[in-house]
Structure formats: structure tokens, C-alpha cells
Amino acid sequence: MKKIRVMVIAPYEGLKESVMAVAPAYKDRLDITVTLGDLSRGTLVARDAEKKGYDVIISRGGTAEMIGKSVSIPVINIDISGYDYMRAIKLAENI
């Protein structure tokens, strides 16, 4: 059985770490590559992934939206969760 090639473009380190933690559970059917990429860099990474033959891209928020406009392969958006709101509040406290 051919594995599905998945490029995950995480806009922040915490999401990258989360995906990397669960990726081994799917290694028998998914070939998952995880990289960091915000709005502009994410689009460049996505275009490169499309050229390299990836089957699908997973990202979130505005990054996923911009990627979806720039590639022809499917883009799966990770929904915003309560964790994301709490993370934003904590980041704002540090400013």
C-alpha cells in the first residue's frame, strides 16, 4: 500500500511539536513531514511540497488559507481551539 505524503506547515513551534509527537502513530499509512512556516514562508514551503509530489498539506488559520490559494493539492485546515486562545493571551501578557 502506498503511503500518503503529507506536509504539515506549522505556524508556531508548539504545533510542530504536537504533530511530531503523534506522527509515529500513523507511520504505517502516512509519510509525514513537519516544518515551521508562517503566512509568507508557509506559502513558499507549500509550493515546493507540491512540486516534490506531496499529496496533501495540513496547516492552520491564515497560513492554511493563503496556502490553499497558492497550490492545487488539497489543504486541510486545523481549527482554532481553546488552547490557541490561551496561548495568545499568554503571549500578550509577555509583551
Question: Mind explaining what this structure looks like?
Answer:
- The chain has 95 residues and is of the alpha/beta class.
- The chain contains four helices and four strands.
- The protein has a four-stranded parallel beta sheet with strand order 2-1-3-4.
- Helix 1 links the parallel strand 1 and strand 2.
Concise description?
The protein has 95 residues and is an alpha/beta fold. It has helices at 13-22, 39-51, 61-70, 82-93; strands spanning 4-10, 30-36, 56-60, 75-78.
| Helix/strand class | alpha/beta
Write down the secondary-structure element order: EHEHEHEH
User: Average pLDDT across residues?
Assistant: 90
The major beta sheet can be summarized as: 4 strands, parallel
| Amino- and carboxy-terminal Cα gap | 50 Å
Enumerate how many helices there are, as a single number. 4
Radius of gyration: 14 Å
Unreliable residue runs: none
- The main sheet orders its strands as 2-1-3-4
Percent of residues in helices comes to 40-55%
Q: How large is the share of residues in beta strands?
A: 15-25%
- Quaternary state of this entry equals single chain
- Overall, the morphology is globular
Overall number of strands:
4
Topology:
Blueprint: E1 4-10, H1 13-22, E2 30-36, H2 39-51, E3 56-60, H3 61-70, E4 75-78, H4 82-93
Parallel strand pairs: 1-2, 1-3, 3-4
Task: Pick out its properties.
single chain, alpha/beta, 4-stranded parallel β-sheet, 4 helices, globular
